[in-house]
Amino acid sequence: MKQKINGRTIEISNPHKVFYPNANITKGEILNYYNRIAEYMLPHIRNRLVVMQRFPEGIGKEGFYHKQVPDYFPEWLQRKTVTLRKGEKQDIAVVNKKADIIYMAEKGVITFHIWLSQKDNIEKPDKLIFDLDPPKKGEFSEVKFAAYKLRDLFQDMGLIPYVMTTGSKGVHVVTPIKPEYDFDIIRQYVRDILTELVKKYPDRFTLEPRKDERQGRVFLDYLRHAFGQTSVAPYSLRPIEGAPIATLLEWEELPYIENSQKYHMKNIFKRLSQKKDPWKEFKLHRKSLDI
DNA sequence: GTCCACG
DNA sequence: CGTGGACAACGCGGC
DNA sequence: GCCGCG
Ligand SMILES: [Mn+2]
Ligand SMILES: [Mn+2]
């Protein structure tokens, strides 16, 4: 079977292979999903380097993260050569068009993880991302409490924070910024800010990286702010039964969200047909940080 | 999903 | 010619 | 340097 997109012909293999065993979702359905969702994804993923999380045998078998684009990927898929901390070079995939998403999905990519910077300015992130997860199963309300506190914090700084489910356990609070500072500067800056917030709520928040030291507190994960680190792309599927999706929200919806997997392959298009883009103004809301 | 050494 | 097995990430914090 | 973590 073949599909033609953006003038590229993509050969689709094994469309009937089951990728989500429990729900019986096939590779063909995943490709159909990415075909339909691409227009919503592209504004957020375009011009960014991506790490592919691949499950060529479905989520019932082991998957892997894939950064170095293999030579057998087509020449039309853009690579960006980056130098790792250890000095080695790596050719990372860049998403520019719908065909890029579909090609990667054809190669078993279920989840797209994207850089916080764009391809022409890879050293400088254009958004802040804080990853908030429940300290224990079923404590999503703690995640929401943390999200609101971060929202207030950034709004008070004159910034415009947004919120999304990750489709896994928690949420991301994402704030657009002008790409003016390197990752290391940003990370130190946000860490200092969060340290103050933790002082205010020492029994609910922590910056402790070791799980067994968190003691029921929400880890305010700021560690995505580093060169080469990624976060899940908007509208990416997750490799979890039920095919949950990282979904952009309005702050006004958050009170009614009870878990991170509320939106999934079976209900997302109903939502999209009823709701205007909750992040429509995201790029317009990039502000300078006062560092 | 693709590659390739090996039978 | 067919196929089993190899392969496909990395940066940060803290000890 | 290595482990836990995402
Ligand atoms: Mn998370
Ligand atoms: Mn295979």
Automatic annotation (TrEMBL):
Identify the residues that the record assigns to the DNA ligase D polymerase domain, covering every copy.
26-279
Q: Which CDD domains match?
A: LigD_Pol_like
Q: Please name the Pfam families in this protein's record.
A: LigD_Prim-Pol
Give the domain of life.
Answer: Bacteria
Q: Which residues cross the membrane?
A: none
Q: Which residues form a coiled coil?
A: none
* Record NCBIfam families: ligD_pol
PANTHER family noted in UniProt:
BIFUNCTIONAL NON-HOMOLOGOUS END JOINING PROTEIN LIGD
Q: Give the protein name, as stated in the record.
A: DNA polymerase LigD, polymerase domain protein
Organism from which the protein derives: Flexistipes sinusarabici (strain ATCC 49648 / DSM 4947 / MAS 10)
